[in-house]
Amino acid sequence: MEDKLITIEKPAQTEIIIKKSRFITSIFPAHNKEEAVNTVNRVKMEHNQANHNVYAYVINEQVQRCSDDGEPGGTAGKPVLDVIKHKGLNGAVLLVTRYFGGIKLGAGGLVRAYKDAAVKGIEAAGISEKLLYQELNIIMDYQQLGAIKNEIENSGGREIIVAYEQQVHMQAFFPLEKVDIITKRLIDMTANRVKTEKGKYIYL
After folding, report:
1. How many CB atoms lie within 10 A of CB 114?
2. What's the number of CA atoms in the CB half-sphere (13 Å) around residue 39?
3. What global pTM score does this model have?
4. Backbone angles phi and psi of 179, in degrees to 5
5. Which of 5, 8, 22, 64 could be joined to 130 by an S-S link, Cβ 3.0–4.6 Å?
6. Which pLDDT tens digit goes with each residue over 177-199?
7. What structural domains does the chain harbor?
8. Which pLDDT score is estimated for 114?
9. Which tens digit of pLDDT belongs to each residue from 120-147?
């Protein structure tokens, strides 16, 4: 997994009109291929009267796909995909829906139109850089809770969840380079009377 993820801040929808054709851009986050495909199908259903529902998506750089959806080959899907890749985006699916206005744009005009629509959509969604964090699960006695919680917060722990059971169970996420450091610190400060276990990875 990459140490950081450049993706969109939020879903967005924009529209531009070029020579009477409507180009509606819809952009959404997508964490995996299945989510991207479901998003494409949903938008196609919403715009099932459109002439074209062009799309492109990139998931973790390994999964990349685009479709011209009936436009001349290479004039629609690839330009949209190129914009996504040029922006360095991961985990995003972008669709450009076209309602034909009666005036043909030509191959060059189509490429420019789809690129412009994609850029406008990404600008509306915003770009966010997220870092890779790893989960650290900690089990402790109740008398250790105050000191450990302070240590976790002061060390940059995020998404902290505490469950009060027979012992206290705490979950927190740390940047990768801090996980082993905080683990050693907790063991030292409790004289090895705390249990720690690494967990899943998420981007925050």
Report:
1. 30
2. 24
3. 0.80
4. -60, -50
5. 5
6. 999 999 999 999 999 999 999 99
7. 4-125 (3.30.230.30), 131-203 (3.30.70.240)
8. 98
9. 999 999 999 999 999 999 999 999 999 9
| Beta strands 127-140 and 52-59, pairing class | unpaired
In this model, does residue 17 exceed pLDDT 80? yes
In this structure, are residues 69 and 53 in contact, taking their beta carbons and an 8 Å threshold?
Answer: yes
User: Are the CB atoms for 120 and 25 separated by under 8 Å?
Assistant: yes
Contact residues for 28 (Cβ-Cβ < 8 A; gap 6+): 8, 11, 39, 92, 93
- Whether the predicted pLDDT of 203 surpasses 80: yes
Amino acid letter for position 185 = R
Residues 36, 59 contacting (CB under 8 angstroms) = yes
DSSP state of 156: T
Q: How many CB atoms within 10 Å of residue 204?
A: 12
3-state secondary structure of 52: strand
Confidence band for 3, pLDDT divided at 50, 70 and 90: confident
Query: 């850089």: which residue's tokens?
Result: 129
Whole-angstrom distance, CA of residue 179 vs CA of residue 21: 53
- Helix H segments across the chain? 33-46, 77-86, 106-125, 145-154, 176-189
- 62: Cβ contacts below 8 Å, ≥ 6 apart: none
pLDDT digits (tens, 9 = 90+) for 148-161: 999 999 999 999 99
